[in-house]
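[audit] Reproducing an earlier prediction to check determinism. Same input, same settings, fresh worker. If the tokens differ from the archived copy the diff job will pick it up downstream; this log only records the rerun itself.
[audit] input (198 residues):
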Amino acid sequence: MRSRTPADLAGRCPGCYLPTALCLCAEVPRLETRTHFLVIRHSKEASKSTNTARLAGLALTHCRILTYGAPGQPFEPSVLEAPGTWLLFPDAQPPPPGTPPPERVVVLDGNWAQARRMYHRLPALSRLPGLALPPPPPDARRLRRSPHPHAMSTVEAIAAALSLLEGEHVARPLHALHELMIDRVMAARGRLPDDEDD
């Protein structure tokens, strides 16, 4: 798969996973946010250079990334039980009226099929209040295609959540980082986006 990096990261930055000549680590903002983010990343996403959860982890001081689905590494669902935790996912149930805004937001990171499987295989997720996002603009730039109209890359979704919860001025640097990543990945490919799922 073109976005999968070599196991030894030969010629790649160990931070952003892009080719060394196109490394964007020096451009990554460091953002202090009120909201904490817990990203549950499917194990098959971890080695992809197009994985944007990696960018969120670099940019946000309050972002933790956990792996799901790795052989021999069971996922501990108790990490989802902290008070004030919401889920960022289209199928999640809206919170009851009057519920305080989230202190922590769980984000599922994988292609659409992987995210849906994680949602159904981790019952604790369905018990969390859901944070709904407006759909992305139809002309939004994409590195991967998705069958779902609400699908976004992980860093896009986190930026959209921050825009709702803390204001567009907080989200703007993440949106800009995502656009920069698209530019760098496209430059590395020297071609149009491929057909991978988002």
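[audit] rerun output stored. Observation attached for the diff report: The two ends are 14 Å apart (CA to CA).
[audit] end
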